[in-house]
Task: structure prediction
Amino acid sequence: MIPNGPGVPAPGTELELHWRSSRHARRLLTLGLAGLFAAVLARRPEFAGLAAPALLLLVAGRVQRRPPRITVSARPSTRRVFEGERLAVDVSAEGAGEGAVRWRLHPGLEIAPAGAMAADGRRARFVVTPERWGRRQLGTLEVTLRDPWRLAEGHASMPLPSLDCYPAPAEQRTRVVLRRLPNRLGEHPARASGEGIEFSGVREYVPGDRQRSINWPASTRRGRLQVNTFAA
Result:
């Protein structure tokens, strides 16, 4: 159903629609029956005239042709993610005629929505994130098709593909500094003095020290030559 390559268009899946009356149609039916009941009970034909438009609209909606099936395509942006990483699921519908499409995503286990749904006509995008590593099912996609008069709704659902979620790399919260490290190993300063770049302190000059290590401000204050020392 869903290709592995991100650049390949996803083929559609044909879903059978189960049609039923909408909430708007039920309100119109209640209004029409209430008008007829009031007309019969009060023997006032004008009440039947008030109920006639609602009943005529319901009859006209019954003869309207509704598509029995709809083709839905669902394509995730990637099939391999890490814990906490976001991914998008793009969905689209074809064969809906003049009806309006409404989308709803039921996330799978350990799958959490990571943003609001972005819908554009018969296309939509869901952003989700896996909360735990493992092979995870993205969830179930629910599609609702409404006729132009909003008198009937066609419902269908399809399972979304699974993805491979890998553990996120652990974060080192503390700085590890070993007591002793060999010379020229890594960037950790050693506790012993040596030929490094990490400043360690100032000591008095002894024959054999390099002249470029002389700390002239400290030598001026103390009256004797002082040199800088560095950590290995």
About this structure: The first helix runs from residue 23 to 42.
